[in-house]
Amino acid sequence: MLETWRWFDSNDPISLKKIAQAGASGIVSSLNEIPTGDVWPLDNLLVRKSMIEEAGLTWDVVESIPVHNDIKTRTGDFEKLIENYKQSIVNVGNAGIKYVCYNFMPVVDWTRTNLDYLLENTGSALRFDMVDFVAYDVYILCRKNASASYSDELIAEAKAYFERMSEEQVSMLESNIIAGLPGGEGSYTRETIKAAIEEFIALGEDGLRANLIKFLAEIVPVAESVGVNMCIHPDDPPFSLFGLPRVVSTQDDVRKILSGIDSQSNGLTLCAGSFGARGDNNLEDMVKEFGSKIHFVHLRNVVREDNGSFYEAEHLDGDNDMVGLIDALLQEESKRREKGINMPIPMRPDHGHLLEDESASPNVKPGYSYLGRLKGLAELRGVIHALSYRK
Ligand code: DNO
Fold first, then answer.
1. Atom from ligand 1 closest to the CA of residue 105
2. Please, how many CA atoms are within 13 Å of residue 314, restricted to the half-sphere of its CB?
3. Options 295, 315, 351, 353, the catalytic residue
4. pTM score of the predicted model
5. Which of 28, 48, 161, 328 has its CA 20 to 30 A from that of 93?
6. Residue 161 is a catalytic residue
């Protein structure tokens, strides 16, 4: 497996030098400075690439080229936006980068309710708490018909929680949910998010999936022509939020996407933490089924709770069998080698805990601390080495 690391850009508090010292050889990055929907210029890609290479690293994966909401709804200027997206893929291919991660989450990108969840060891983690989320949706955002999306029990708990909340807690929860997290797409106010939600709810799951397949039908041949492998990132969390349709949450969802447009360039980002937040997703089985179409992996673990809440655990701890998953990925790589295909799977330690040395540092992005990821990468590397040695 290729050890990679997410580096946002030159404003990232974690320097390329530190990343090289962590032992990663590859970089996962994105041109965040380009507004969503615009073409990524080849020149900007080449400048970013040479910065990375000067540090002795390689730019292996683009994460993400964000997909504009108008493409997801096929409204407004979507045809022009798709043309721009194709041109960005061509430019990425011409810059020599082989993988493009993207997602098709409606309205909100990855979502957590608590960015500083205290762990027993006094470090902190990211958490998605169902009761907090329902309190926001039903009692703070006051979305129309929101209560129809949840059980009576959850609504009662959310009401009790909302009644205890201070104003400060309300605004913190609101900004965690709607202001957007690092690398995420979309930042809203209460009014703009409500309008966006209505539009997507009207589309429904079948409508959203059909729009994804139509988008892929246009971009995948272009990706193929320049040697780029598209890899869709799952919904995070992998279930409906705000009553919105979700189409990349389960093994069956992925099956529909990959078979919708059958091409090596139409692949998957296996994000263990996202898919693994559902107990009914079997990660090893996904590796076996989707095999050669797995182009990129995010290795991260979660502890799930009964009502749908979860928090991000140590990389080797939590409810997903990380050793089993890595074993399955190594087997997939050896199948590729047997066929003479030189495509090691890029992986990155996804997120990390916030530990003492960085806890007072104002610039650390939620989930993207240095030490937490350094620890995660070291543990994962240990597993990879041990399993590779055995084979
Ligand atoms: C969170 C990430 C997301 C992800 C994008 C993929 O840490 O997994 O930012 O990169 O949603 O398009």
1. 11
2. 12
3. 351
4. 0.96
5. 328
6. no
Q: State if residue 45 touches ligand 1 by the CB under 6 angstroms criterion.
A: no
Q: How far is CA 329 from CA 2, 5, 265, 281, in A?
A: 12, 18, 19, 16
Asked about 233 being catalytic, the answer comes back as yes
| Cα→Cα distances 80→40, 83, 86, 226, Å | 14, 5, 10, 20
Higher pLDDT, 183 or 354: 354
pLDDT for residue 180: 74
Give the active site residue among 233, 295, 315, 353. 233
| CB burial readout 111-150, b (16+ within 10 A) else e | bbbbbebebeeebbbbbbbbbbbbbbbbbbbebeebbebb
> Does the Cβ of 237 fall within 6 Å of ligand 1?
no
| Centroid of ligand 1 to alpha carbon of 191 (angstroms) | 25
CA 58 to chain CA centroid, Å, is 21
Q: Is the CB of 266 under 6 A from ligand 1?
A: no
What pLDDT is attached to residue 361? 86
Asked whether 103 and 111 are in contact (CB, 8 A), the reply is: no
Q: Are 308 and 131 in contact (CB under 8 A)?
A: no
Ligand 1 centroid to Cα of residue 391, in Å, is 32
Name the amino acid, one letter, at 267.
G
Residue-level pLDDT at 121: 94
Q: CB count, 10 Å around CB of 340?
A: 6
Which helix (H) or strand (E) segment is 48 a member of?
A: helix 42-54
d(CA 291, CA 328): 9
Residue type for 33, please?
Answer: E
Indicate which atom in ligand 1 lies nearest the CA of residue 367: 7
